[in-house]
Amino acid sequence: MTTTFPSIPYLDWIIGRTDEVTHDLATSDLRPTSEFEGLVPPSLAGLPDPTDATLTGQLADRYGVSESNVLVTAGATHANFLAACALLDRVERRSHETDATDAADATDSPDSPDAPKPQVLVEKPGYQPLCETPEALGARVDRFLRPPEFDHALEPHRIESAAIDTFAYAMVTNRHNPSGRLATRAELAEMAHHAADAGGYLLVDEVYAPYVDPADDGPFGGVTAAGLPNVVVTGSLTKFYGLGGLRVGWLVGPEAVVARARQASMHLPSVADPSMKLARRALHNSEQLDAAAREHLSANHELLASFLAERPNLDGRIHAGGSFALFEHETHSGGEVVEAALDGDVLVVPGRFFDRSDAFRISLGGDPDAMAAALDAFGSVLDEL
Questions:
Q1: I want to staple 10 with a disulfide (CB 3.0 to 4.6 A). Which of 51, 128, 162, 204 is the partner?
Q2: Cα 317 from Cα 306, distance rounded (Å)
Q3: Which family does it belong to (predicted)?
Q4: In whole angstroms, how far apart are CA 361 and each of 337, 350, 357?
């Protein structure tokens, strides 16, 4: 199988842009007020380290699973990549076994250019890299709808409707990126059940799952699909804790899948030891960090909800506790709004990167004072349209 890694338009567009504008309404991670200077993020400075804990052990305790069900990765993107490698490999191995059992003709073998590709189903609208990565790994990527007219709800029957014989996994985000809708564990369990009936897995990117206030009883206070049959979840310290500089993430799933992902990880750089140490410190002091993050999240949610309420020419929904959402303008396209915002020194994300060219996404990740100023500047842009 030939593997190619083309550019990802959204990442090509966003990288570097946040440094070029005064007002950033594109970044979604809850960044601290203080800039990261030196080796230790301000939110971790002066906090105690655990004496004997491993990061894998801390995460296993957090998710209520065995350490063999956890793999530490260099961020959530790395985790999603390794999960894709493992789950696609499962289909490849299944194809090889079928080929050997049936003594199929060589032209139909999994190594043949004419062999069917493993299938991945990705939610639509959705985050662009979640389509591009499995496709680069040789998968056939098809889409299933989270219908805007039904508030981007998960509809599990769509998996079986779209799945083919080579179905490997279905991919969802929770909170849904870009709408901000939060699915319940029961809804995710039903999705996983349908994925299993179709012969595959459910992969859930949970980087936004902790974005709830008050906290739930799941890991990091959010909803999780971890521990459900045939489910792999990914997460990181980037979004909720605002610790993107550490580049620490993880995947949690069935032991066989995690073992295969670990084998794939040997071909890529591992997490640096200083990042591992600081990540252990973050989890050891999570009660303090969680409280600060939820205060930050709640303030930004209120700002975004108030902004929408005062803008009758915008259509969108701010889900409970959410700090990012999709919006449509009553008279201008998403692209026109984005360009006007850039002219006003404000960055918002074009909806075309999330399968919604009619819309744009606003994310409030910075400190509330900066976000209030950014929304004021964006309001002035909208007034002049």
A1: 128
A2: 11
A3: Belongs to the class-I pyridoxal-phosphate-dependent aminotransferase family.
A4: 11, 7, 11
